[in-house]
Amino acid sequence: MTDKIQKHVERLVDDEKWVKTFLSKLKKRKSGCWEWQGSLDPEGYGRFHVKKHHETGTGRNFFAHRMSYFIHCEGYIQPDELILHQCHNRLCCNPDHFHIGSHDDNMDDLRKSGNIAGTNNPRSKLDEDDVWDILEQYYLTWNVSINDIVEQYDYLDIKRGTISDIVQGRTWPKVYDEFYDHYFEKKGVEE
Ligand SMILES: [Zn+2]
Hints:
two-stranded antiparallel sheet
């Protein structure tokens, strides 16, 4: 089965016209992210169906970020190899923002790069339930932006940076970990 997927991917990546069409659906942002403009799966990852070059002509579903990796890094990676978004933008298809590895690797990176705050900060105006709620809104409700969340917590005088630290796991890492395990472990991988 995996061989067939790999063959399909190789044929697609060799097809310059098809690749051009795929790339035309990526929008380059100032952040450096290349955001997928096509359809999304329920978790908010770019997901699309391809009939072209499929061995039976019925087609196969692909994740946009994984296809982008196949195209730009000129290599197929097995379905059990995870692509993690270091930019935490699920729409992003820029391989420079990818990290191949496990969830644990990802959490280590976050710990090394960011301040661990949250529960240890007695001045925090939010509690763990608030943080969980913020993560649910941001990651599970596709049309909610950080600004929408900031507005909701306006009465607590919560700044944009506080919310963005939370959704990137820089603060409240324990809640972020639990949340990630609860909803996303192994997501973003083709079956
Ligand atoms: Zn990105």
